[in-house]
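Anyone up for a design puzzle?
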């Protein structure tokens, strides 16, 4: 390849190389913008959504408004979502004692919610209604946790 005396070819080549580098820097910049608290908030919100869905499914089952298979599927999906939320909370790297405490609390609440959904799965065929109090309590606890995390994030 020849390079022109005016240097046009050389500059075009530099521009072609700089575009991927710029794109990589932008991507790295955006991925590093999430604070530990906002990541924990997202995990808690996802867990709350999963438990709320499980609660609705069990409530519908108790009232004979749905099939057992539908309820079982909803509970299985909730377990999957809770597992994802727990994984997300586990991957957070806290940098302060307050963030460490928030992570521990988030994981505790998600694990309690997972236990409640697992218990609902065990009794869905015999007495679905008996699982509702634990599911309601988990939904309430996760809502409070999400509210607290949102307040902590707003202070930053």
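Challenge accepted. My sequence:
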């Amino acid at each position: 390849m020849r390079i022109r005396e005016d240097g046009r070819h050389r500059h075009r080549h530099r521009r072609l190389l700089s575009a991927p580098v710029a794109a990589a820097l932008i991507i790295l910049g955006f991925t590093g913008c999430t604070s530990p608290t906002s990541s924990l908030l997202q995990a808690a919100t996802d867990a709350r959504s999963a438990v709320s869905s499980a609660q609705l499914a069990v409530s519908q089952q108790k009232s004979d408004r749905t099939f057992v298979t539908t309820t079982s599927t909803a509970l299985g999906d909730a377990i999957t979502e809770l597992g994802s939320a727990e994984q997300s909370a586990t991957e957070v790297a806290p940098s302060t004692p307050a963030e460490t405490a928030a992570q521990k609390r988030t994981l505790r609440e998600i694990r309690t919610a997972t236990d409640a959904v697992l218990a609902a799965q065990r009794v869905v065929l015999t007495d679905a209604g008996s699982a509702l109090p634990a599911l309601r309590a988990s939904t309430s606890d996760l809502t409070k946790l999400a509210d607290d995390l949102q307040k902590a994030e707003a202070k930053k």
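A detail worth pointing out: DSSP finds five helices and no strands in the chain.
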